[in-house]
Design goal:
Strand content: 15-25%
Distance between the termini: 52 Å
Low-confidence stretches: none
Bound molecules: pyridoxal-5'-phosphate
Order of helices and strands: HHHEHHEHEHEHEHEEEHHHEEHEEEH
Radius of gyration: 21 Å
Number of strands: 13
Number of helices: 14
Shape: globular
Mean pLDDT: 96
Strand order of the largest sheet: 2-8-7-6-5-3-4
Largest sheet: 7 strands, mixed
Helix content: 25-40%
């Protein structure tokens, strides 16, 4: 068979697509450097692990994995509806919330339609936009965060979707209730606004909004959340969107019938019940964030104040420091691909992990 230039036959958006760069897996670093005792603070996972209730639910469901999952996710939707005070018909379940973000783009954006998001915003927004041939309208950040005035100015007749991460990953910046509400009021109802609240449960600031409350007023609003972060179920892949039922109906049309697996469905429903696990995770995150902030200040470095379970540290030569940390068995996330080549993002870990990161960073700085 003749060799084919597959790139030339790929759809235009995919041709120049740069795949998502995940945090380096522990096993990969083990293989590369042959070192043990590696810690990973690179993917904003919950260092306390999953809820014991979720694990018990997975164990109980294991013997049924020869069955297809409930494609409607009825039980999980019921649990979510009760937990959030919404209706089943408002929910779109996803294979992680990334899946929901992609479904929204596929349902509403076609070639050359515009999608607005901010500079330094979560990497999946440009990916899903470009893959389907949409045009990204990227607004400059202010103080590393979303500039809602610029985002409003960017709206044109061709705008279909606006992605807002609150808080944003990787910067940790967040939008207040008053400013986000005013923005939503200013967006024409023909434009779908996605407020991505992947880190919602971690945020303790009183002025941080719960956008679910605004759904009755804004039928063009989709709020996305996930079980990957505070609930500690990143490996199972389950997230969701909440919106007006008419909008959920459209988004659900492009969903694969069994996009959430049976173990994820039961684990998520059980995790929702475990308030103790969530509360312990909030406390551990608050303390860990404080520990990192203090340690970073003591090293004479700056960081971007964060509402999430991670912190962006200004280290200067981030590529070098990243490599030094790797050699010491500490995996963090370089974020040059987010337009932040002098920062590293570190996920809040357990106290001993944070200490190890700070010690390794101190040594790394001495070397450079
Ligand atoms: C802002 C934001 N949104 C969405 C996600 C997607 O998470 P998942 O697909 O695991 O739900 C992440 C994950 O890092 C994130 O940081």
């Amino acid at each position: 068979m003749d060799a084919c230039d597959f790139l030339s036959i790929a759809v235009p958006g995919v041709r120049s697509l740069q795949p998502y760069q995940p945090g380096k897996p522990i096993e990969q670093l083990q293989r590369q450097l042959g070192i043990a005792d590696i810690i990973k603070l690179a993917s904003n996972e919950n260092p306390l692990g999953p809820s014991p209730l979720a694990l018990a639910a997975v164990r109980a469901a294991l013997s049924d994995v020869h069955r297809y999952p409930d494609g409607s996710g009825f039980e999980l939707k019921k649990a979510l509806s009760a937990h959030l005070g919404i209706n089943n018909a408002q929910i779109t379940l996803g294979n992680g919330s990334n899946d929901v973000l992609e479904l929204i783009a596929r349902a509403f954006v076609q070639s050359n339609d515009e999608v607005i998001f901010s500079e330094h915003a979560f990497a999946v927004y440009p990916l899903v936009t470009q893959a389907i041939g949409g045009r990204a309208a990227i607004t400059p950040a202010v103080n590393y965060g979303h500039d809602l005035t610029a985002m409003h100015r960017a709206i044109t007749d061709g705008t279909r979707v606006i992605f807002i991460a609150n808080p944003n990953n990787p910067t940790g910046t967040w939008l207040r209730r008053d400013e986000l509400y005013a923005f939503l009021r200013s967006v024409p109802s023909r434009v779908v606004v996605v407020v991505d609240e992947a880190y919602f449960e971690f945020v303790t600031a009183p002025a941080y909004p719960d956008c679910l409350k605004w759904l009755p007023e804004f039928p063009n609003l989709v709020v996305t959340r996930t079980f990957s972060k505070i609930y500690g179920l990143a490996g199972l892949r389950v997230g969701y969107g909440v919106s007006h039922p008419d909008l959920a109906d459209i988004i659900n049309r492009v969903r694969q019938p069994f996009n959430v697996n049976s173990l994820a469905l039961v684990a998520a429903a059980a995790a929702l019940e475990d308030r103790k696990h969530v509360e312990a995770s909030v406390v551990q995150n608050r303390n860990g964030l404080q520990q990192l902030e203090t340690g970073i200040k003591n090293l004479g470095l700056d960081y971007i104040p964060s509402a999430g379970n991670f912190l962006c540290v200004h280290v200067g030569d981030a590529a070098q420091i990243y490599e030094t940390l790797l050699r010491k068995g500490v995996i963090v996330r370089p974020i040059a691909n987010y337009g932040l080549p002098e920062h590293l993002r570190v996920t809040v870990g357990l106290e001993a992990e944070n200490t190890r990161f700070l010690d390794a960073l101190a040594e790394g700085l001495l070397r450079h």
